[in-house]
Design brief:
By secondary structure, the chain is of the alpha+beta class. Helix content is about 15%, strand content about 30%. Strand 15 and strand 16 form a beta hairpin.
């Protein structure tokens, strides 16, 4: 008995030590990041700790992007590079580090802090204020403003609810697909298998009442797995009081395609074009070689009709006699995506646009084209987190030319962790009309981007240090709504013109 008690005590001590060690490793990871270590070792003696002693972090510095600063470092510090034997990618990593410091990019853990600004915010075309509509629960992911002023709210680990006109958050809607509690929380983010994702109204909602939900459907023993596995699925239904009725599965994949990869990369963003086709994003919820295999759903944007039927003009469609019954190729619209955390429609043209998270650097805004290859993981502007070039595509044997891919419409390097976005389409801020309002997670920034004749002509940070922005949507009254997440909760905000 004594030996057993000692063994149990020893195991408890070992477990506690491992937990503390893991916590220390995650908390100190930013200090051990390779480019920061290189800066401290080779640059701080002249530029000061983290560069604050000189003009290096000034936005007025002549090198304003990573490529330009990389070239400047090579030109001005050739002897140091040779002495330190810095490899080529580490020079770019140093440039990324400096620009990240200029932009005040926080660590992932610190990005869960939030500050809701008070008073008037000045911007290039409009001054505005930020109003708190309501506090929300943990894991907020998406919103859909209703024509009557209420707002549908999705919290990943709680489900669907309705926020009233007065800002009161109602009880969870009954009868929606099941969601599951988080398995763990890592640096403020939830690891979940079985969560609710996006919510979108049918374009003719006022007449048909259809609401579309994406969620990560979960199964285990019922699909032959010894552990829980999930995959993105799309359903539609209607609200009757506070109940979800008329539920229909609109898009799903074979259970063989469900994976144990957590839902953080599931994506599941929804959008409609002008012909009422539905689009849904699926992240890299598998190994990256599957992103270019048409029979798998991962790393792709899928297209289908609003009733779930599949149009035969999809680029990789095959008839039943040819197609593998477990294949999801018939709905593939574009491929080679890493994690498309944003999807929106240009209200003028019906074009579909997506944001995409890259690795360190390499976030993108893309105009989605039929059958387009968006290049990941063979081509990216980003670096690996260890400060080396991305070689995943080469290691997997992917072989296609850059000319065969669709390049980013807008590249964000360093990466702010782009999330969802929307085209401004309202009367309250008329000088923002048709501009993109783009959210970000790590950068905690709301961007405004103006595109004219296929080029970016304006790019402005409307709000910074706001919090991790999960969704940006237009209200039917022209209001701009922003959904942010905190460590254990979130906030629904509204932008209003200043007096």
């Amino acid at each position: 008995m004594i030996n057993a008690a000692k063994m149990l005590l020893g195991l408890m001590c070992l477990g506690g030590t491992l937990v503390l060690a893991g916590q220390w490793y995650l908390e100190t990871e930013p200090q051990r990041e390779p480019s920061r270590v290189a800066f401290v070792n080779y640059c701080a003696s002249c530029h000061g700790p983290d560069g604050f002693a000189t003009h290096l972090l000034s936005q007025a510095h002549t090198a304003q992007n990573a490529d330009a600063l990389t070239s400047r470092i090579k030109l001005q510090h050739a002897d140091l590079i040779a002495h330190a034997q810095l490899p080529e990618p580490m020079i770019k990593a140093l440039a990324l580090y400096v620009i990240e410091q200029r932009q005040g990019l926080p660590s992932i853990a610190d990005s869960h802090n939030h500050v809701i600004p008070t008073g008037v915010i000045e911007s290039q075309h409009h001054d505005f204020e930020v109003e708190l509509v309501t506090r929300v629960g943990k894991g907020p992911y998406s919103i859909a403003p209703l024509p009557d002023g209420r707002i549908l709210l999705v919290e990943k680990v709680r489900g669907l609810s309705v926020v009233s006109n007065s800002g009161k958050r109602g009880d969870l809607v009954e009868g929606t697909p099941r969601v599951w509690s988080e398995i763990a929380q890592v640096r403020g983010s939830f690891a979940v298998l079985g969560s609710m994702l996006d919510v979108q109204l049918h374009p003719d909602y006022t007449n048909n009442g259809w609401i579309y939900l994406s969620h990560s459907d979960r199964c285990q023993l019922d699909c032959g797995s010894p552990w829980p596995v999930t995959m993105v699925r799309v359903v539609r239904g209607r609200l009757k009081g506070n109940r979800w009725i008329d539920n229909e599965v609109i898009w799903s994949v074979h259970k063989d395609k469900y994976t144990v990869v957590p839902d953080a990369v599931a994506s599941g963003r929804l959008a409609f074009d002008h012909q009422d086709f539905v689009y849904v994003t699926v992240g890299g919820k598998s190994t990256y070689d599957n992103l270019h295999v048409m029979d798998t759903p991962y790393g792709k944007i899928h297209r289908f009709r609003d009733d779930g039927s599949v149009p035969e003009d999809n680029p990789f469609w095959q008839g039943k006699k040819v197609r593998d019954p477990a294949s999801s190729r018939n709905t593939v619209w574009s491929f080679g995506h890493r994690t498309a955390q944003g999807l929106t429609t240009d209200p003028r043209t019906g074009d579909i646009w997506a944001t995409e998270m890259g690795p360190r650097g390499g976030d993108e805004i893309n105009l989605i084209q039929r059958g387009g290859n968006y290049g990941w993981p063979l081509f990216t502007e980003g670096l690996d987190y260890n400060g080396e070039y991305i070689t995943i595509g080469e290691d997997l044997g992917l072989d296609f030319e850059y000319s065969q891919t669709i390049p980013p419409f807008i590249d964000f390097t360093p990466a702010p962790s782009l999330s969802n976005f929307v085209f401004h389409n309202g009367d309250q801020f008329p000088k923002w009309q048709h501009d993109l309002l783009v959210g970000s997670l790590r950068a905690q920034t709301l961007f405004r981007i103006r595109i004219e004749q296929g080029k970016t002509v304006e790019k402005e940070r409307l709000l910074t240090k706001l919090g991790r922005i999960r969704d940006v949507e237009m209200g039917h009254d022209g209001s701009v709504y922003v959904l942010i997440e905190h460590k254990e909760s979130g906030s629904l905000l509204r932008l209003v013109p200043s007096a």
